[in-house]
Design brief:
Order of helices and strands: HHH
Number of helices: 3
Shape: elongated
Distance between the termini: 70 Å
Structural class: mainly alpha
Strand content: under 5%
Largest sheet: none
Radius of gyration: 35 Å
Length: 168
């Protein structure tokens, strides 16, 4: 019958141990956990802010590229109109000059747009790569936090290398 109903002394010491463990967790465990969670939240918020800024920069670059292309088209139209006004006296020369200038402006605008686009894409890629490396590093650190886990991974890699070399 004593297995089902514990004595008062056992209940008292269990309560004392529980309160001691609760105090230790409350004093040192929970603040550390909350600190880590808040740090992670801040890191995620910062990453989201950077991604939002990158998206805004990309949108601005696209708007600028559209404006540059529109300006190039307007310049081309002006040059073609001027060429049409002077066509009676110098028809062939004005047409050639207008075409060359229009093509040059369009090519310059396209080259500038492309270079800005590539720069923005490279910047976003580098940020994504940096974030990926950091995330992978944290995951690996968590997965390989004990010597046993590290040795298991090393053994598996050695087995894979040895079977690959045997297959060749």
């Amino acid at each position: 019958m004593s297995l089902i109903t514990p004595e008062f002394g056992l209940l008292f010491w269990m309560a004392v141990v529980f309160l001691i463990v609760l105090f230790v967790l409350w004093r040192w465990g929970f603040p550390a956990i909350v600190g880590m969670v808040n740090g992670r939240k801040a890191y995620i918020d910062e990453s989201l802010r950077k991604a939002h800024e990158a998206n805004e920069k990309l949108a601005n670059i696209q708007k600028e590229s559209e404006a540059i292309l529109q300006e190039a088209r307007q310049k081309q139209a002006v040059i073609l109109k001027e060429a049409a006004d002077t066509r009676d006296s110098i028809v062939q020369q004005a047409q050639d000059k207008a075409r060359e200038e229009g093509n040059r402006l369009i090519n310059e605008a396209k080259a500038e747009i492309e270079s800005e686009k590539l720069a923005a894409i490279n910047e976003i890629r580098s940020q994504v790569a940096e974030l990926s490396v950091k995330v992978a590093e944290k995951i690996l650190r968590r997965q390989l936090d004990t010597d046993d886990k590290q040795m298991d991974v090393i053994d598996r890699m050695l087995d894979e290398v040895s079977t690959e070399s045997e297959n060749k």
